[in-house]
Write a structure and sequence with these properties.
Rossmann fold, GMP Synthetase, Chain A, domain 3, 3 domains, 6-stranded mixed sheet, elongated
Amino acid sequence: MRMIMGNIEAGKAGVKEGLEQDRARTGLPVVAIVGRPNVGKSSVFNRLAGRRIAIVDPTSGVTRDRVSADVVHGGKRFELMDTGGIGIQDVEEMARHVEEQIEIALEKASVLVFVVDVRDGIVPLDETVAERLRHVHKPILLVANKVDDPGLISLKGEFFKLGFGEPLPFSAKQGLGRTELLGEIAALVPFGAEAPEQPQMRLAVVGRRNTGKSTLINTLAQEERMIVSEIPGTTRDSVDVRFELNGKVFVAIDTAGVRKQRRVEGTVEFYGLVRAKSSVRRANVVLFLLDATTEISQVDKKLCAYVVEQFRPCIIVVNKWDLAGDTGTAEFAKYVRDRLPGLSYAPISFISAENAENVADTVGLAGELYRQTSTRVGTSELNKILGGALEERPSRRKRGRGGKLFFATQVTVAPPTFVLFVNDPSLFDASYERYIANRLRKEFPFAEVPLRFFFRERRR
């Protein structure tokens, strides 16, 4: 059983040293989408990015973190960034955190896209946003969104009063004005940034609410990339964050915190849950966060089952270990194994995301799991091992008939997938599948990753 442990100061030094190169490199120019709540900023973002990334919902204040995507147009590559609504009034007291994220976006941006709602006309909060942007000495494109009918184009004229030139008519719903807006953006963003290196690995950071997922992302990114709050449910979108560690590029996917299905309220949380599951499916390795200060819950068990179901390599990451008191790592690891038996093969890492303890080592371990899941084994050696396993422990018998293996082959990697040609697939149940999986993990270099098996009938 593999466990990662260490001390806080060494963890801090390892992460900071490894990530220093990232801050020194020139990134892509940033184009930030700004505006008051509910003018359709996330819809504009999704339309320009060419895919649904940000959650779109009529509820004000859905977007909280900075959601971004790389976009290429007219020979220019830039990072498109969605932001929360300026002037958001949030009953959960998230307004200050959202404003901090907006301020970072304004500071980073080379170009700003100021979105207004052509149907509402100018409202006082639009004027508040305009006044704030006048003090930002950067190119600003004014976009009149929700022009879903040609008859609405004439209404854009009212927005000349804001002082940012002619508004560009746009319909995020229908795509009207997309090419024109991208052309205007491409004309303004600077050259000079090279296309970013393709990430070596995508890490999905998943867990129930308030386990420290966003804190871990911020530690990796070395900036306040995600809003961190004691308020449960802060992150709603799944947000991709690029970072570099020891000269290698990664993408960390922060996901909405999962809670009991019957407690998922409204479309925002529903789509956040859908995106969290999608993040697991597109990850190379899953970092499954547990909170060392709370008990493993039914939500944790269900999330564990989903990770197992998707055959994703996984590290069980016990966060807030600095707050665990006198509990020993071996004792806690046994507790985890007893309650999450489906991930019995997964290594356990004890970290403090806030203090950067063991964070770099955990990313390094994820890289090792990624290599394990790409392992191929020779057919002859595979059949030799499986044949021996069947001799040592025969499969179940049915009407006096035992299981026979005629031939086995590995058909793909990530996850390592095997097809076994047998006399009767019904004789090889789930427990026997676990038996041969453990035997293969012992004999071949994929000891800590999931394996997939297909049993096919073959008659002689």
